[in-house]
Design a protein that fits this description.
The chain is mostly beta strands. The protein contains seven helices and 19 strands. The longest helix is centred in the N-terminal third of the chain and has 13 residues.
Length: 336
């Protein structure tokens, strides 16, 4: 028997909004296939560290560890009122801060319209809307079985993405109401043809401190050739550690600025170097925009540096990063 919506909402409130804090450490292993003349087959590994509190303080860092050298993929902070993202210099100076951008929104959320969190807790939202709220407008679509668990299926229409919207199909665990599988479809025709562009699926549902989290999950993107599905990218997520309700009073939710680092404050509408006189580069003072600026003398920021990728293609930027790193170019890329 299907669970009523009010009970699903109640489950989701308990599982996703009743803790004071959550901390996740995760390993992501990615394999991508060759595609066209510009993308060759390859693989890579990143580690992710994420902290969030009920007061919306947040910290999120991803580091590419394979292939070497270690490279910060993205680093974001929120003190609950404002957010900061940190970009680093190219190798061999990859440990030195290059630019800090201060905004009202966390990491890539304003640009791409989906919440920046690790898998699988990213899917506790639909775009930027908490699942416990979005479920009220979802379309029920039967039942399924995922990871040997009974699920109810719900469809969310026209969820925003980087280039276009998609229909997302959520398979919610009947016992906990947490998502165990999400399928992304470009349009209704692809949905009717059972041709998803991406699929995330939990391989387990584990209990930690009274809460439930899929510690192991898999994500894949697909392209189609004559109707046949070709898996173009695969991410395997392993949550190495998850902790709830820690004392976060000594944790840092704002970066410590390196001496001389370029600061681009989009809230206060000012740009300067972190020096005693806070000297502002004149060529940027007159060119403040809502898009992060690049420090003088460096190439313009491109979409991939902001984190690129659909919410259903969370680490597409990582593929690009692996390729650019091979060419000796360090950049700030993304992933959910």
């Amino acid at each position: 028997m299907d669970k009523p919506i009010d009970r699903i909402v109640s489950d989701l409130v308990r599982e996703t909004a009743s803790w004071d804090s959550i901390e996740i450490r995760m390993t992501v292993k990615q394999v991508h296939q060759a595609y066209g003349p510009k993308i060759s087959a390859g693989s890579g590994t990143t580690t992710e560290h994420y902290i969030e509190t009920s007061s919306l303080r947040r910290f999120y860092k991803a580091v590419q560890i394979e292939p070497p050298p270690d490279l910060v993929v993205w680093l974001g902070y929120s003190d609950g009122k404002r957010c900061a993202s940190v970009a680093f210099h190219r190798p061999p100076r990859q440990a030195e801060q290059q630019q800090i951008t201060i905004t009202k929104t966390f990491l890539h959320e304003q640009v791409f319209g989906f919440v920046d969190r690790p898998k699988p807790i990213q899917y506790q939202h639909v775009g930027l809307i908490p699942l416990r709220e979005a479920i009220l407008k979802a379309v029920p679509s039967g039942t399924s079985k995922v990871a040997n668990r009974d699920c109810q299926i719900f469809i969310f229409k026209n969820v925003p993405g980087q280039r276009s919207s998609q229909d997302l199909v959520y398979h919610l665990d009947s016992a906990t109401s947490l998502p165990l599988k999400i399928e992304g479809f470009a349009d209704e025709a692809h949905y009717r043809s059972a041709q998803p562009s991406s699929v995330w699926q939990a391989e387990s549902l584990d209990e930690v401190q009274g809460f439930h989290v899929p510690l192991h999950s898999r994500y894949a993107t697909y392209r189609y050739d004559g109707g046949a599905a070709i898996e173009s990218l695969t991410n395997r997520y392993t949550i190495d550690e998850v902790k709830f309700n820690q004392d976060t009073s000594t944790m840092a939710f704002w970066p410590t600025y390196d001496k001389g680092v370029f600061i681009n404050d989009l809230i206060e509408k000012k740009s300067y170097y972190n020096t005693p006189d806070k000297k502002a580069p004149q060529e940027l003072v007159a060119a403040q925009t809502k898009v992060p600026q690049r420090a003088p003398g460096l190439p313009p920021i491109v979409a991939s540096e902001l984190g690129g990728g659909f919410p259903w293609l969370p680490t597409a930027g990582l593929v690009l990063g692996l390729l650019l790193l091979a060419a000796g170019v360090g950049l700030w890329i993304k992933r959910r």
